[in-house]
Amino acid sequence: MLPNRRTAAAIGAVALAGALLSAGPAQADASKPSPAASAKSAPKGDGAKAICKRLPKTEARISAALTRLNGDATVPGSIARLQQRVAEAKSAGHAEIDTYLNDRLTFRKSLLPTLTKRQEDLKAVSTWCGAQGSK
Question: Over the range 30-43, which residues count as b (16 or more CB within 10 Å of their CB) and which as e?
């Protein structure tokens, strides 16, 4: 079955538009950076003002995460609760579930030292922000 004239014209128009769009950037002057590229070139500072502004919320989020991770087996998201689920999967003979949950447990345990270090770093940042009058 042959396509009708409208279908053929539509296919031709799409092909032509694609060819024109793909050729556009190749013909641009490569010696001059585009305005969009120069606007995104480099940060103008280290973002200290914004970090100091967000500090209380960041401290609260990290503290809440550490509290949750260190919670007992009744706390959703805690390491103890996930350990209990791993033990239950193992005792039920669900090897695939055991493997999946054990991998999640390994990752969750790796979060503790990372978040603890961030909490310590934020204390130093808080001191710095206070000295700068930003807090």
Answer: eeeeeeeeeeeeee
